[in-house]
Amino acid sequence: MSEKRLTVPDVRQSKGQRKLVVITAYDASQSYIAESAGADMILVGDSLGMVVLGLEDTVSVTMDQMIHHTAAVSRSANRCLVIGDMPFLSYQVSAAEAVTNAGRFLKEGRAQAVKLEGGREVAANVRAIVDAGIPVMGHLGLTPQHVARLGGFKVQAKTALAAKDLLDDALALTEAGCFAVVLECVPSPVAEMVTKAVPIPTIGIGAGPHCDGQVLVYHDVLGLYDRFTPKFVKRYAEIGAQARQAIASYADEVRSGAFPDSAHSFNMSEAELEALRAAGLPEIKTS
Ligand code: KIV
User: Fold this and answer.
1) Which of 4, 180, 257, 281 could serve as a FRET partner for 173 with CA atoms 20 to 30 Å apart?
2) What is the CA(48)–ligand 1 centre distance, in A?
3) Helix, strand or coil, per DSSP, at residue 32
4) How close is the Cα of 204 to the center of ligand 1, in Å?
């Protein structure tokens, strides 16, 4: 595996050549694990709100929270391309605000790109961000920041008309300069159609096997978040259950006195102990 960081042109050129592996991460240790496991790109998703900050959805995640976590992820990612997720209302209000906020992900978060949700309605602001020299990944289909309008976390583009709409959005994002686009929760044939129609890589999540790459949330892959598991999530481990078991064992051993034992404690030389005893201090046991 090359140690050189994956670049935006590398991502564009991978289309039709190889599948791209993307996973979210929110801190330096997760980023280290993702990179050393061979991921191509790390997305600091605004799923942060749900899996890390304990929020109901992604709507109230702030710019400062995203920058804080993006900077942590970037500190231990040397080879992966790091993408910061622009939070709700950080890129819709005006092109100037969109550029300023996107810029913070690169300047303060040390990411190499940003991601944002929406299609034709945000294309002009995508163009402004790209023109400022900041690579943008699009996000279509189920766009969680629009959960209020969508009426819940539901599969999108299920009708021919909606699928055509999604295709038009993907073409508009391509035209606006996006280097890749996430397709979330859309039927596999729709994702396949879009993947064939656009020259940029599609990154699927709940969009079937025909996308140019896949993205999953770190906590979902590892079984760390069990409040809700969407159908498209495949858990590759049950780290949450293991962690709970480990902490329960720790608690049992603290309560029974089995931890810490001598293997996990520090001792003193016999001479120093003798000196302590000679000082008339309370009886000291040696273990
Ligand atoms: O916020 C996030 O983690 C995302 C991915 C699920 C694509 O947007």
Assistant:
1) 4
2) 9
3) helix
4) 10
- Cα–Cα distance, 215 to 105 (Å, whole number): 20
- The amino acid present at 264, given as its one-letter code, is H
> Once rounded to an integer, what is the mean pLDDT over residues 10-30?
98
215, exposed or middle or buried, with CB in 10 Å at 0-12, 13-18, 19+?
buried
* 134 Cβ neighbours under 8 A, 6+ residues apart: 99, 102, 103, 105, 106, 113, 114
272 included as an active-site residue = no
Ligand 1 contact via 83 beta carbon (within 6 Å): no
DSSP, res 118: B
CA 252 to chain centre: 34
Residue 285 pLDDT? 66
Binned at pLDDT 50, 70 and 90, residue 49 comes out as: very high
At residue 136, the 3 state secondary structure works out as strand
- Position in ligand 1 atom list of the atom nearest CA 203: 7
For 123-150, what is each residue's pLDDT tens digit? Answer: 999 999 999 999 999 999 999 999 888 9
Q: Distance between CA 48 and CA 72 in Å, rounded? A: 13
Least confident interval from 40-54, 155-169, 232-246, 271-285:
271-285
- Give the CA angle between residues 101, 104, 109 to the nearest 5°: 135
Residue nearest to atom 4 of ligand 1 (CA): 45
Q: Which of 3, 35, 175, 184 is catalytic?
A: 184
Q: CA 13 to CA 9: how far, in whole Å?
A: 6
The DSSP symbol for 201 reads: P
Are 206 and 231 in contact by the 8 Å Cβ rule? The answer is yes
